[in-house]
Design brief:
With 286 residues, the protein is α/β, with parallel strands linked by helices. It contains 12 helices and 5 strands. Helix content is 46%, strand content 12%. Strand 2 (139-147) and strand 3 form a beta hairpin.
Length: 286
């Protein structure tokens, strides 16, 4: 028991701990040693942490702790942080930035419909945005559509061109996969790719309500920004794509197999989006 307390509260000195337990320091140092077992557990924990970080390179110590607990480990975040620091497993990836929004156009603009509402179900609101991906001699562009409630990426498309076809392809994937009811709110920035007549017409055909963030305010689409930050830090910045096809394959795998199905989201109670949606459906049907 005393070792468990030390692991959970390493800041408590041995002297203070012995005083709280009502035993002398000599008892602590002379008690039967379980050093061999402790070393074995420490090694096993370090191996487990390293395995998690290798699979999810962008995980911080809190997500690693949540993953360990899901696997049956009884460990607190302070110990995990200490191990990750000792083993240099903390993520230290630099961010890059390239603007992708061109709002200098003559198309219509729409008010922000999600600013004052609470999304409490699937397919009530979708969030759309664009980011860039660096290739050896050029850029390609990724459009994504997220469900605002589950954070699941329900549609995406990678293209060499940043145009309406890019965003429309991602939207078509989302519509085909989810088949949302009329009244869905589609939220984006005011970029020409989302304000174009072709894109707006497709939203209207689907019965969607159009919502746009204010120009120059990325916080109005913060969940989409967070998704792209995760994608960049845990996939794009860790790879050196040699061509478009390699980027498309790796990014698709990350979105579908890692982000949607495996990666733990703190905003979802440390569940992956697919599991969160399944739990939501189970509760709704009970």
């Amino acid at each position: 028991m005393i070792e468990q307390i030390r692991e959970e509260h390493p800041e408590i000195s041995i002297e203070r701990l012995c005083s709280l337990m009502g035993v002398g320091r000599s008892w602590y140092y002379e008690r039967p040693s379980c050093a061999g077992e402790k070393v074995y557990k420490d090694v096993a924990l370090r191996d487990a942490i390293e395995r998690i970080v290798l699979e999810f390179p962008g995980y911080g110590y809190r997500r690693v702790t949540a993953t360990l607990r899901r696997e049956g480990w009884s460990v607190n975040h302070k110990r995990v942080l200490r191990v990750m620091r000792e083993e240099a497993l903390l993520c230290q990836i630099k961010r890059r930035f390239k603007p992708t929004t061109d709002s200098a156009h003559a198309f219509g603009r729409y008010p922000n419909l999600i600013e004052d509402i609470e999304v409490d179900g699937l397919d009530q609101a979708w969030l759309s945005d664009i980011t860039y991906v660096r290739l050896p001699t050029t850029f390609c562009y990724l459009a994504a559509v997220l469900d605002a409630y589950s954070r699941r990426c329900v549609g995406w498309h990678l293209s060499r061109f940043i145009d309406t076809s890019l965003t429309l392809s991602a939207l078509e994937m989302a519509l085909a996969a989810r088949r949302p009811a009329a009244g869905l709110i589609h939220h984006s920035d005011q970029g020409v790719q989302y304000a174009s007549s072709e894109y707006v017409l497709r939203l209207e055909e689907a019965g969607a309500r159009i919502s746009m963030a204010a120009v120059g305010n990325p916080y109005e689409n913060a969940k989409a920004e967070s998704f792209f930050r995760t994608l960049k830090m845990e996939e794009v910045y860790l790879k050196d794509y040699q061509d478009f096809e390699e980027a498309e394959g790796n990014i698709g795998r990350f979105i579908e197999e890692v982000y949607n199905q495996k990666r733990l989201h703190s905003s979802l109670g440390y569940l992956p989006p697919v599991e969160f949606e399944a739990l939501h459906a189970l509760k709704a049907g009970s």
